[in-house]
Amino acid sequence: MNQAFRSSQGGRIDRTRPLRFRFDGREYTGYAGDTLASALLANGVRVTGRSFKYHRPRGLMAAGFEEANTLVQLESGARTQPNLRATQIELYDGLEARAVNCWPSARHDVFGFFQLLKPLWPAGFYYKTFMAPSWHLYEPAIRHGAGLGVSPKLADPDVYDKRHDQADVIVVGAGPSGLAAAIAAAREGASVLLLDDKPALGGSLQYEPGLVEGLPAADWLRAREDEIRSLPNIRVLGSTTAFGYYDHNHLLANELLPAGGAGPRQRLWKIRGRQIVLATGALERPLVFPNNDRPGVMLAGAALQYLHRHGVLPGRRVAIATNNDSAYAVAFELRKAGVEVVQIADSRSGRPAPLAQAQVLGIPVALSCAPTDTRGRNGLQRVELHDVNVQGQARPGTGRWLDADVLLVSGGWNPTVHLFSQSGGALRFDDQQKAFVPHRLAQPGYLAGAAAGHAERESAVVAARAAGRDAAANRVIREMPAMDSTVQTALWSVNVEAIGRGPSKSWVDFASDSTESDLRLSARENFVSVEHFKRYTTTGMMTDQGKTSNVNAIGILSGVLGKAPGEVGTTRFRPPFNPVTFGAIAGRNVGTYYRPLRQLAAQAAHHAAGAKMEDYGAWLRPAFYPQAGETESATIHREVLSVRGGVGILDYSPLGKILVQGPDAAEFLTRVYVNNVRTLKVGGCRYGLMLGEDGIVKDDGVLTRWSENSYLVGTTSGQADRIVEWMEEWLQCEWVDLDVTVESVTTQWAVVMLAGPKAREVLSRLDSGIDLAAASFPHMSARDGRIGDVPVRVARVSFTGELGYEISVPWQYGLSLWSALLDAGKPLGIIPFGIESLMVMRTEKGFLHVGSDTDGLTLPQDVGFGAIIDKKPEDFIGRRSTMTPDGRRTDRRQLVGLAPVDGASLLPVGGHVVDAAFKAASGHTQGWVTSSFMSPTLGRPVALALVERGRERLGEPVQVFDGGKLLPARIVSMTAYDPEGERLRM
Amino acid sequence: MLKIDCPFCGPRDEAEFRCGGESHIQRPGPHNDVSDAQWADYLYMRQNPQGWHFERWLHAAGCRQWFNLARHTVTHEVRAIYAMTAPKPQVEAAEGRA
């Protein structure tokens, strides 16, 4: 079969450029300018998909983003994309696609027998059938049989772009009204951005016949294209679908770039418009009648697009069923192209305007007539018609069958109001047009053309031009002006009860496979809200969001519930209007760019030393430095003993550092810290705790006073930015009278922690000019000096429990300092150690680690700061919250040490602490283990825990509950190592 | 996404800002003079109007300055961007769009 349905001429395709493609494993040929859909139609492929639930054969029913039947898996491997509409894929040479939800092909689908089981799958079937013994037993098989395409298993090799932009006027849709509005706005001097989902301008001008302002459509379009080229302030984005309309006129659109091109594959646009003109056109409604889903039943407007856009004939013998005039024009165009139009069935009883022309052309028209059934295996062969009354009820005894390979249907038109509705705009049901039309606007903008409810092209273009001018002048309207419109007749469904049939195969939503009987059943089950109907029947829930089904469903419900369609109301329109691939949303923020990690100044040295790097907050840091064949625990064991017995260095650069300066710095820090700050002398260091205003422990660190009005605040690694922002909030919003500045200097200073009894000896080998003698440079003080030309700051503080120094140099000298200390310490057996070893040492010493040993309920008195607070007269952030009845409770959990009774069992972090009499795994927990390690120094496990009344229970036996087992333990002091602190004062 | 007119940098996307919640909340103190009820009210009780809401925003990815604005919680219309220390402005008197 070689494009047997291609017309001999016409269409905006390039017949000199044939393109080969494969669909469901078979090879076909199309032309440049085809979509996958039009090429399939040209090749006579009738079954292009299988329905979602019942696996019924389906064919192309539309020509644009409303196509509900033909979803394909495009390409394979890493570049595969699931669930694309064949109508939206521009054909290219070598394209390969498969129908989704069927196997091995849409035509021969092994799941085809599902349609015989239809009585088992009514609306809400998962609540009703497949219940015994449990839905979960059936769910996997049902999900396997249903489902759509398959997501790619491999990483996407393509690049996706994002772009931010703005314009005075954004026009969505480049049909006749969009073009008129865009040009009018640009003529007023506005910057205009014109978007269309198609690669070429023109919209309906590309396929709808007739004159525009006295010119043939093609000529009028050419004149507008010339005009746009002459206006430098109009930019045009083709193949770009606006899919989201957000607050403050923020529009999201996705641009498809040519397949196989060198650059990005898609580009996501985030565009802000002073005004947005929506010229998004209208969508045709199908007719609802039994077996209306057979391949060969197609929207009339779609057939016109295939004919004139692609030069494709929908079939040989065409029947048309309609309730409005628009399908007559399609009949006339098909007739002109040599297609036999065997019948127009018009459900209306009056004399429609185009009737005379039909009679002149000799096309038989039956009035008060509608389709009631179809026949044909793998595609339409016969259509049954009945006479209908004004309510659309078939009259008994009037049935007749008609041979036809295509039935074109038109149930009227809906303005494409999705973006308008997303913008917050309100719709109303127009009883003349029998459609939901835009009513009140929520954001600055206009609607133009069919989207505004215009049915006539001439008047639409005039109004669109005015809208373009008003948008350029930034005139804001709140409500759509009233407009005259033709009175339409509704035919929400063809009622076949009088001829003894039911609506169980009258499809409403082709994509979700829901029928009129599903809707009626839900109403019988007492559903009332349209949102509930949607979810229960799944009507409108699929990837097309009910573009062809929602309004028919509302019309049917209006009849069933006895309410006007406007009272039934629409469900909420949500972005995206058209599916968007995840790649476009992610853009360039993938792989290492998803969350870039900060690197240390001495990163190269850590790698060279074989460090095991791990992600700690925003930083990539050495966890430990294993030697060849050394396990993690053996490495940590060695590192801890080497520091405690000698000396080691740790890259401490991520330590948060905030410079707080100004005449009121001391006053400010008094209000920020739990601790007393005023008594800290220049050159002194003090450990401090910060609370949130709710009293919960927020952060801790060492505070250094470098001069009268200058402090360096240390914070937990990775927290500096957050703490700076928090301090600024207090300074700018609450204590505006304080003269203080705060600034994060975390990455200005590289820091190396030097720890161990030999630390002083190592440091003395670097000539810093600082007197290191214990008497002149005691624990908890800081000095500055120079190593050569490089300024150096040394704080004598300790988080290991050993004699320790934190040495800071400007960031760019971080690697030099690291190497210099390693060299200086070599004769003394210095080692580099990592964060994991530091955590073991601080737990041995009982030093608090905020976030491990505290949680969202921990107050300062719980971690031993009660006495410090009592001695401080001033208010500080969170102080009042520590004084509440809850804060004064005597049974609060307090941080203590825990030791296993057997001296060997490691107590699990998170294990609950229960009393010694506790037996079963229910009842009262007294707290939990927060930190726990095997101590290399002490040769036994050490642990910290938050335990109720812990401090007054020292020595008391308890148990730790762990996965059903109870481990006997004893409450002990937090400080397991060097309780007198002698090693800090060496 | 809102468009917020930073008083120091000009109009920018919402993504550059952080909302600090309701503004014009006075911190009571000192601690010994505040009742539990007063403190709870300060700490937790917030307005949740359907209409104009006076809130503070930080231009976090810009000038790092805090400022106040009035935002309509139904339409998201932003009006009356003003300094942290300025009193609540009259917005109801202007053309309402509730």
Helix-strand layout with pairing:
The complex is a heterodimer of chains A (986) and B (98).
Chain A: E1 14-23, E2 26-32, H1 36-42, E3 49-50, E4 57-58, E5 71-74, E6 81-85, E7 95-99, H2 125-128, H3 135-145, E8 160-172, H4 176-187, E9 192-195, E10 211-212, E11 215-216, H5 217-230, E12 234-237, E13 240-246, E14 250-256, E15 266-278, E16 282-284, E17 297-299, H6 300-310, E18 317-322, H7 326-336, E19 340-346, H8 355-361, E20 365-367, E21 369-375, E22 382-387, E23 400-403, E24 406-410, E25 413-415, H9 418-422, E26 426-430, E27 435-440, E28 445-447, H10 457-472, E29 507-509, E30 514-515, H11 516-524, H12 530-537, H13 550-561, H14 565-568, H15 582-586, H16 603-608, E31 612-616, E32 619-624, H17 632-645, E33 648-651, E34 656-661, H18 665-672, E35 685-691, E36 697-707, E37 710-715, H19 720-733, E38 741-744, E39 749-755, H20 759-764, E40 781-787, E41 790-796, E42 804-810, H21 814-825, E43 831-832, H22 835-845, H23 866-871, H24 879-882, E44 893-900, E45 912-915, E46 927-935, E47 940-948, E48 957-962, E49 965-972
Parallel strand pairs in A: 1-7, 8-9, 8-15, 9-12, 15-28, 17-24, 18-19, 18-24, 19-20, 33-43
Antiparallel strand pairs in A: 1-2, 3-4, 5-6, 5-7, 10-11, 13-14, 14-15, 16-25, 21-22, 22-23, 26-27, 29-30, 31-32, 33-39, 34-37, 34-38, 35-36, 36-37, 39-42, 40-41, 41-42, 44-47, 44-49, 45-48, 46-47, 48-49
Helix pairs in contact in A: 4-5, 4-10, 6-7, 11-13, 17-22
Chain B: E1 3-6, E2 10-13, E3 18-22, H1 36-44, E4 52-58, E5 66-72, E6 78-82
Antiparallel strand pairs in B: 1-2, 3-4, 4-5, 5-6
